[in-house]
């Protein structure tokens, strides 16, 4: 399998490395040193929420339990995101080694990859790589000759539910339940899969941690900004000359990205997928970083001719379909926003009602139970803010 | 369902459940297996799964109804899932949708009379850089053109000896 044709701008994550040599080297270090190095790197989770990886691993390491789990979130369902697809197919061993190191650092013996059902076409390849690592004693008992260190990895499939990318819904799904998010706290690091301490990380996070442990936190921090260290993969699609997966240092401006990908005439960019926000021309100097525009890496470009209300509709239809329906603000809110879009399409929405809808958006952000409902209104709000004139002056119902 | 079929189903479910020590964490893999092999999860399959994991059948139903890839109604041998999310919409998913409907002679949500193809929409398939994208069972197709729709369908008809699609019956 080779997906590399779509990956560009090698920096940290996409560089060629000797995965097994790094694993063997790292397994000779003390757990505490590994945890410290990852913490010092200030690596933040690459799945979107941006929690400190070093802190997450340390909390799980401190938790006392006979069993702990390392879960790789390979549910990649955010619209416009496909970088994990490339990592899962072309950087599989780096992922498996990254998970193994996480297991060593926190004291877990079991790793699970939760692979979205849509990616079942790559499962044979992943199983092959896992089998190969068992044969080479890089998985299983006494890994790389390290007495007493055991780590096993299995793959489990999702069944077509975006919300299962939310870590507690993912755990529910693994436990054979409906994929409905749990109340937090408790957090998975103390009470996760089977009630045991569990680290859930994104595919890219495990691989990035491997690179940090290869070259050190100081080297890693040379890339990116003070608060958003390192590089990140971006999945770029929409109206541009060169769509694909790119690696850029965090802190790059939207404008610089647009130049790289051949999209100088873009009128807007959706950063962070359906749950992210729409960034218009006047914000193109903003940076892609946790302290500015935070993102899991989805960038969708809209050219000058795009109908932004149709874009908003597509996003809201996505949420209407994918909301688990467990809590009212999300279930009801998404439907109401979709109806609002229909009224706008028919040019029958009063300014008063539009403002009520924007108020509803704020309620959803604050009162929804999980990230899906909390971020579902972002696209609606930002598209209406940036393109109110375009939307209200539509000259005919389409 | 024939008694022998039910026995077969029962054996499969219980054997898989045993691998998970009859712990509920094995429920999804069992249901995924049943869906794949039998193209839906019948009331009998739900009852057997419930028995194998010591839970009430309504719990199993709750799980099946939650996931879009599990279904309580029989699906076609090949499920075609067209991505309708934004990036594919921008690369022309509507045209592909129309061609699929024309070439299969059914609309979205339907199954061809010969039971070969079910046509559905799905959300982002992670192929946004090369849309329009669709899945046929486990296989992914990217940069689909209206012309290639017929070829994709034909390849399954040929490979698996599907009798005829709806469209051809009218010829
Ligand atoms: C609705 C929803 C969907 C999510 N989908 C994903 C996903 O597909 N992949 C992922 O890594 N994180 C996803 N997340 C974030 C996870 O809950 C979690 O924060 C992440 O897996 C932690 O890993 P990280 O710290 O390495 O980013 C999602 C969150 C929400 C609310
Ligand atoms: S916010 Fe939406 S997806 Fe999240 S728990 Fe509530 S209903 Fe479910
Ligand atoms: S939008 Fe169709 S594959 Fe992502």
Give a quick rundown of the structure.
Chain A has helices at 19-26, 31-40, 53-62, 83-90, 92-106, 123-135, 167-174, 203-215, 217-221, 254-261, 308-322, 328-345, 351-367, 371-392; strands at 7-8, 69-74, 110-115, 152-157, 198-202, 231-238, 244-249, 268-271, 277-280, 298-302. Chain A is of the alpha/beta class and 398 residues long.
Q: What does this entry look like structurally?
A:
The complex is a heterodimer of chains A (398) and B (171). Chain A is α/β, with parallel strands linked by helices. Chain A has helices spanning 19-26, 31-40, 53-62, 83-90, 92-106, 123-135, 167-174, 203-215, 217-221, 254-261, 308-322, 328-345, 351-367, 371-392; strands at 7-8, 69-74, 110-115, 152-157, 198-202, 231-238, 244-249, 268-271, 277-280, 298-302. Chain A has 3 domains: 3-220, NADH-ubiquinone oxidoreductase 51kDa subunit (Rossmann fold), CATH 3.40.50; 231-302, Ubiquitin-like (UB roll), CATH 3.10.20.600; 308-392, NADH-ubiquinone oxidoreductase 51kDa subunit, iron-sulphur binding domain (de novo design (two linked rop proteins)), CATH 1.20.1440.230. Chain A is built from 14 helices and 10 strands. In chain A, strand 3, helix 6 and strand 4 form a beta-alpha-beta unit. By secondary structure, chain B is an alpha+beta fold. Chain B has 2 domains: 3-66, Arc Repressor Mutant, subunit A; 78-158, Glutaredoxin (3-Layer(aba) Sandwich). Helices cover 50% and strands 11% of the residues of chain B. Chain B has 8 helices and 4 strands; from the N terminus they run H-H-H-H-E-H-H-E-E-E-H-H. The longest helix of chain B has 17 residues, at 3-19. The radius of gyration of chain B is 18 Å and the shape is elongated. Chains A and B meet through strand 6 and helix 11 of A and helix 2, helix 4 and helix 5 of B. The complex binds flavin mononucleotide, iron/sulfur cluster (SF4) and FE2/S2 (inorganic) cluster. Iron/sulfur cluster (SF4) binds at residues 163, 181, 323-327, 330-331, 368-370, 372-373 of chain A.
């Amino acid at each position: 399998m080779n997906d590399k044709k779509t990956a560009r701008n090698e920096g940290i994550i996409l560089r060629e490395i000797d995965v097994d040599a790094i694993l063997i080297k790292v397994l000779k270090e003390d757990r505490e040193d590994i945890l410290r190095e990852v913490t010092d790197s200030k690596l933040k989770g690459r799945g979107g929420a941006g929690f400190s990886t070093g802190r997450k691993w340390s909390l799980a390491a401190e938790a006392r339990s006979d069993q702990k789990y390392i879960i790789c979130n390979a549910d990649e369902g955010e619209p416009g995101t496909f970088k994990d697809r490339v990592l899962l197919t072309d950087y599989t061993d780096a992922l498996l080694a990254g998970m193994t190191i996480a297991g060593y650092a926190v004291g877990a013996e079991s790793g699970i990859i939760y692979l979205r059902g849509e990616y079942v076409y790559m499962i044979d390849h992943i199983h092959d790589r896992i089998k190969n690592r068992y044969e080479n004693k890089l998985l299983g008992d006494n890994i790389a000759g390290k007495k007493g260190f055991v780590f096993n990895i299995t793959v489990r499939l999702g069944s077509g539910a975006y919300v299962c990318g939310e870590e507690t819904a993912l755990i529910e799904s693994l436990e054979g339940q409906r994929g409905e998010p749990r109340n937090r706290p408790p957090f998975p690091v103390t009470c996760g899969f089977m009630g045991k301490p569990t680290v859930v990380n994104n595919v890219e996070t495990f691989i990035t941690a491997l690179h940090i442990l290869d070259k050190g936190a100081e080297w890693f921090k040379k890339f990116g900004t003070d608060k958003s260290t390192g590089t990140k993969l971006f999945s770029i699609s929409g109206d541009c000359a060169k769509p694909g997966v790119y690696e850029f240092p965090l802190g790059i401006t939207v404008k610089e990205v647009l130049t790289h990908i051949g999209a100088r005439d873009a009128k807007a960019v959706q950063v962070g997928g359906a749950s992210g926000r729409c960034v218009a021309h006047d914000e193109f100097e903003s940076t892609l970083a946790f302290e500015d525009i935070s993102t899991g890496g989805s960038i969708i470009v809209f050219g000058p001719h795009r109908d932004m209300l149709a874009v908003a509709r597509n996003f809201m239809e996505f949420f209407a379909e994918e909301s688990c329906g467990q809590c009212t603000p999300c279930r009801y809110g998404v439907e109401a926003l979709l109806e609002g879009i229909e009224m706008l399409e028919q040019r029958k929405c009063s300014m008063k009602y539009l403002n009520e809808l924007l108020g509803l958006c704020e309620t959803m952000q604050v009162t929804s139970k999980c990230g899906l409902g909390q971020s579902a209104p972002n696209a609606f709000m930002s598209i209406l803010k940036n393109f109110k004139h375009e939307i209200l002056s539509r000259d005919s119902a389409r | 369902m024939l008694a022998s079929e039910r026995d077969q189903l029962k054996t499969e479910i219980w054997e898989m459940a045993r691998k998970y020590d009859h712990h509920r964490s094995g429920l999804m893999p069992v249901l995924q297996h049943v869906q794949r092999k039998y193209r839906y999860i019948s009331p009998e399959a739900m009852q057997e799964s419930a028995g194998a994991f010591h839970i009430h059948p309504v719990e199993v139903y709750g799980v099946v109804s939650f996931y879009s890839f599990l279904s309580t109604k029989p699906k076609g041998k090949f499920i075609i899932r067209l991505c309708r999310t934004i990036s594919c919409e921008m690369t022309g998913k509507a045209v592909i949708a129309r061609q699929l409907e024309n070439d299969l002679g059914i609309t979205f949500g339907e199954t061809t009379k010969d039971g070969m193809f079910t046509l559905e929409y799905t959300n982002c398939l992670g192929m946004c850089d090369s849309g329009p994208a669709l899945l046929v069972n486990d296989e992914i197709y990217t940069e689909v053109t209206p012309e290639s729709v017929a070829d994709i369908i034909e390849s399954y008809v040929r490979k698996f000896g599907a009798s005829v699609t709806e469209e051809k019956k009218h010829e």
